[in-house]
Known about the structure:
Chain A is mainly alpha-helical.
Amino acid sequence: MLSPAASVAPVTAAPPPLGFPDADSETWVIALGGAAGPARDAAVARLHALLLRAARFELRRRGTRVDVDDLATQAADDALIAILAKLHTYRGQSRFTTWAYKFALLEAAVKARRRAWQGREVALDDDGWALVAERRRGPGADAETAELLRAVQEAIATALTPHQRAVLVALTLRGVPIDVLAERLGTTRGALYKTLHDARRKLRAHLALQGLHPVEGDTL
Amino acid sequence: MSDETRDRLARVLGPAGPEVSCETCFDMLDSYVELERVGADAEAAVPGMRAHLVGCPACGEDHEALHALLDADG
């Protein structure tokens, strides 16, 4: 789901040596990494129950109302497979349960987003840049803002490749969740975010050339 | 500038500074969250994480979800 080839800022440091933050984490890793048999089966079953609880929690938190049990079970199943495959990458930098939870939460959220968009058309055009404009001009629509918006529109239209423009418009202006767009395009969240990141950098550079710096003094 | 316009521009332009990738974000999310929960300087441990959580709504939701679940665990 997350492609290592799409790193925005790759981490090159060697992984830290394995250590355990507490006895419970050590117990988990030893039981799950042990030889096949009743003890390992019991640990796997206990982990699946933990993941199922986490997935249900996230689906409820997100307000998912349809097929919650089905989605939670799918998420727990997929998270369990991922965890067992990546058990050797756990370095004890957090409690084991915290490390495991993130897999279940990710799977539950991805499934919820995709279910919410099931059957909905994802418009992948590159002409939606006009959406950046003010929808209604009110008292706050000053000349400086109008100039900035015009410059952003112009940058989207001219500085980006068609693919960058389509991805940026879909994700940031049309509100398509990144996991939904990744599924429709047969790619990954990481790869799409790399495209978005590159597009944003181009836009900022384009604006800077015109002396526009929307980053100063705020969170933009 | 209206709040709506500011939010839209923030989504389009993203965070200004360097940020980690989605892959690094997922790899480091558990330790980052545990550092946050004990009041440690999580951003110093994972530079660029905060910017990514702002720039990538999906990863930001994963971050929020992990905090919420750990809160519920007590």
